[in-house]
Design goal:
Keywords: Membrane, Transmembrane, Transmembrane helix
Distance between the termini: 28 Å
Protein name: DUF3592 domain-containing protein
Shape: elongated
Helix content: 25-40%
Structural class: alpha+beta
Strand content: 15-25%
Organism: Sphaerisporangium album
Radius of gyration: 31 Å
Strand order of the largest sheet: 4-1-2-3-5
Length: 182
C-alpha cells in the first residue's frame, strides 16, 4: 500500500507526473476575456465607421461650400459650457443643401446669426467642417488601438507560458539537488 499525499499523488510522485519541463498546461478563455474581446470588437467597428470622414476632415477633403449660421445651441456641463452653431450648408455648385447642420468646433463667439464661413462636407451626419478641418482622427485612432488591444488580449494570454507554481518549483529544485549529490 502506498502513501497518498494531500494532493492525490502517491509518495515519491509529483502531481504533475507525465508533464515534461516547460510543458504548458491547458488554458481556457474565461467569461471576462470574452466580454473584453466583445467590447474591443465594438470599439473597432465604431472606429472603422468613423475613419473615412475623420481622415477626410483631417485632409480637408469633401464637398466645398458655405455655412450660414442660424442659431446657437449650448449644453451646460458641470464647470463648463459646450456650444455649437447650427445652420445651413450649401455646396459651391448649389447641388447640396443641408439644413440644421452643426459647424464642427464652433463656440459661442464664433458666429452671429446670418454670418457665413467657408466649409466642407465630408458626408458625416450632423456637421460640416471649417477650413482648418479637424483632429478627430486622433480619437478614431485611439478607439481602434484600444479595441484591437482588447480583442487580442485573450490570444496573447493563451500564448504566454504559465509560470510553475511555487510548490512545484521547490520540488523540482530538490530533485535536481539530489541528482547532483549522487
Amino acid at each position: 500500500m502506498s502513501a497518498v499525499a494531500g494532493d492525490g499523488a502517491t509518495a515519491g510522485q509529483s502531481a504533475t507526473a507525465g508533464q515534461g519541463a516547460g510543458t504548458r498546461s491547458a488554458r481556457r478563455i474565461g467569461a471576462f476575456d470574452v466580454a473584453l474581446a466583445l467590447g474591443g470588437l465594438l470599439l473597432v467597428v465604431l472606429a472603422l465607421q468613423n475613419a473615412g470622414p475623420a481622415l477626410a476632415a483631417l485632409r480637408g477633403e469633401g464637398t466645398q461650400g458655405t455655412f450660414t449660421a442660424r442659431r446657437l445651441e449650448c449644453v451646460e456641463h458641470p464647470g463648463h459650457e459646450q456650444c455649437s452653431w447650427l445652420g445651413t450648408f450649401r455646396s459651391g455648385d448649389a447641388r447640396v443643401a443641408r439644413d440644421g447642420i452643426a459647424f464642427y468646433g464652433s463656440e459661442r463667439g464664433t458666429f452671429t446669426p446670418g454670418a457665413t464661413s467657408p466649409a466642407f462636407d465630408t458626408g458625416r451626419r450632423g456637421h460640416v467642417y471649417g477650413p482648418g478641418g479637424s483632429n478627430e482622427w486622433t480619437v478614431v485612432a485611439g478607439l481602434l488601438l484600444a479595441g484591437l488591444a482588447l480583442v487580442l488580449r485573450p490570444v496573447l494570454r493563451l500564448r504566454r507560458p504559465r509560470p510553475r507554481p511555487r510548490r512545484e518549483q521547490i520540488t523540482a529544485d530538490a530533485e535536481a539537488a539530489r541528482g547532483q549529490g549522487a
